[in-house]
């Protein structure tokens, strides 16, 4: 009983700290600048805030297995606008960081490469390639050479990003419906 009480006090203290001082989770500040710029483009008339969206223990292992670093609710004036998922996928020799932005219906509004660490294949971060994901949801195939056309010279990165988008979209639908 003591450990549960201590855990409760720690959780309560952490929540008070987050509310008082803001949240600075695993999203690096260099990524946060890019995320805020994207949010301004997606909702130009709104002051959008990102709030951590807690993933329960039952779903946390699955989230980790598909590369999810963090899930955020997107909120403006107390109204939920959608969600953002910060995740990592494999490139040829390293990993790269992306963000998926969803509307409240869990359709993809945008996908953004936050950091690409390879010398080749960086075209995966081009807006021309990424705009193929807009409007896709859990009922879409979200497969390379089906809904999404690949890029020559960036095959592994395209495959990883596309599979990540599909897996995360399915996961988010389950996560939000379970809540």
What does this protein look like?
This protein is an alpha+beta fold. It has one domain (28-178). Helix content is 40%, strand content 23%. It has 5 helices and 5 strands; from the N terminus they run ααβαββββαα. The longest helix has 24 residues, at 155-178. The radius of gyration is 17 Å and the shape is globular.
The helix tally amounts to 5
What structural class do the secondary elements suggest?
alpha+beta
Number of domains: 1
Strand content range: 15-25%
User: Helix content range of the residues, please?
Assistant: 25-40%
Low-confidence residue ranges:
1-24
In spatial order, strands of the major sheet run 1-2-3-4-5
Shape: globular
- SSE string: HHEHEEEEHH
Number of strands: 5
- Overall pLDDT level: 88
Tell me the radius of gyration.
Answer: 17 Å
Provide the fold topology:
Elements: H1 2-21, H2 29-42, E1 49-52, H3 57-65, E2 68-76, E3 79-90, E4 95-103, E5 108-115, H4 127-130, H5 155-178
Antiparallel strand pairs: 1-2, 2-3, 3-4, 4-5
Which descriptors apply to this entry?
single chain; 179 residues; alpha+beta; 5-stranded antiparallel beta sheet; 5 helices; 40% helix; 23% strand; globular; disordered N terminus
């Amino acid at each position: 009983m003591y450990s549960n009480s201590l855990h409760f006090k720690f959780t309560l203290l952490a929540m008070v700290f987050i509310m008082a001082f803001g949240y600075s989770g695993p999203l690096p500040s260099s990524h946060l600048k890019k995320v805020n710029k994207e949010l301004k483009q997606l909702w130009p008339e709104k002051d959008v805030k990102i709030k951590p969206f807690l993933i329960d223990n039952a779903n946390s292992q699955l989230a980790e297995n598909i590369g999810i670093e963090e899930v955020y609710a997107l909120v403006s004036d107390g109204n939920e606008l959608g969600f953002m998922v910060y995740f990592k996928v494999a490139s040829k020799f390293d990993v790269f960081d992306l963000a998926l932005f969803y509307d409240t219906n869990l359709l993809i509004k945008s996908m953004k490469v936050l950091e690409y660490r390879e010398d080749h294949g960086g075209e995966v971060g081009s807006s021309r390639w990424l705009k193929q994901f807009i409007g896709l949801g859990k009922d879409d195939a979200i497969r390379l050479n089906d809904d999404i056309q690949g890029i020559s010279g960036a095959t592994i990165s395209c495959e990883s990003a596309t599979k990540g988008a599909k897996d995360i979209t399915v996961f988010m639908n389950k996560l939000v419906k379970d809540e």
